[in-house]
Write a structure and sequence with these properties.
About 35% of the residues lie in helices and about 20% in strands. It is of the alpha/beta class. Helix 2 crosses helix 3, helix 2 packs across helix 9 and helix 5 packs across helix 6. The chain is globular.
Length: about 270
């Protein structure tokens, strides 16, 4: 909830409940953020959902902008999502499934698979169960789609996951790269881009704040509306008090998180000064 606004701030008022994006210092009960990075939430949302909405901006925002604006998502698409058990991945599965697309989620472990199927994934491929061959992931994806090739690949992992999924991309397919969680930045063969007419687009959600704020505003309005309707959720596998922030980081590093980790300030609750 907004508890104070600076001089000249008009689009946000004291008492508004917002999702805010901070450039730092967000592990706190109160934070000072730019007004332009705040997005108003409906006041009718239950308190529990207001807390979950903290995962909308960057994670769901990245998925929505990547798939809709740069992936040109439609119901006829076959969408492959790497790192599907994370915040961006779980949102991407919902956005793609909500558009009527076939969705193949790439994620490790049965716990993540269960969540992803419940969110709308047509199939889940676990790369840790596949033989260590260059074509194993491609073959598993094509088996899951009934030999339909991928028209949109949303990749947040890079490394071997990207390489395997890239082999399953169709002629004229679109690849949107949103991160490299594996630590390995892929080097796709340009020869395949040429002969298969594949396009690759990098998507850094935060840079739209400066260069294309209208894109963010449109996307967030759509996401907030879907969240309020219940057609978009923010899966939260860990809810921890603010004092246990180190445990939250450890859970992410240990791949124990499905969706998001939520840090909950104690006491009377936090607020934002704009």
């Amino acid at each position: 909830m907004v508890i104070e606004v600076g001089a000249g701030v008009t689009r946000i008022a004291v008492g508004d409940t917002v999702v805010a994006v901070s450039r730092g210092g967000a592990f706190a009960a109160e934070a000072c953020v730019p007004a332009a990075s705040c997005f108003r939430l409906p006041p009718s949302l239950p308190h529990a959902l207001l807390l979950d909405a903290a995962g909308l901006a960057v994670a769901a925002g990245t998925a929505d902008v990547a798939l809709r604006r740069y992936g040109r998502l439609s119901a006829s698409d076959v969408v492959c999502v790497t790192g599907a058990g994370g915040g961006v991945g779980t949102a991407a599965v919902q956005v793609a499934a909500g558009a009527g697309a076939m969705v193949v989620a790439v994620a490790r472990g049965e716990q993540k698979a269960r969540v992803l199927r419940a969110l709308g994934a047509t199939a889940v491929v676990d790369p840790s169960t596949l033989p260590p061959t260059p074509t194993a992931l491609r073959d598993a994806i094509l088996a899951a789609t009934g030999n339909k090739k991928v028209t949109i690949l949303l990749d947040s992992v890079g490394g071997a996951a990207f390489d395997g999924c890239f082999r399953a991309v169709a002629w004229g397919g679109r690849v949107v790269a949103v991160g490299f969680a594996s630590g390995s930045i892929p080097r796709p063969p340009l020869s395949l881009l040429l002969v298969k007419n594949i396009s690759i687009h990098g998507v850094f959600w935060g840079s739209h704040m400066q260069h294309a704020p209208g894109v963010i505003e449109e996307s967030m309005a759509r996401l907030v509306a879907a969240f309020a309707r219940g057609t978009l959720t923010v899966p939260v596998s860990h809810r921890l008090p603010l004092a246990r922030w180190a445990d939250a980081v450890a859970a992410m590093e240990g791949r124990a998180v499905v969706g998001k980790v939520l840090l909950v300030p104690g006491g009377a609750g936090g607020g934002a000064r704009l």
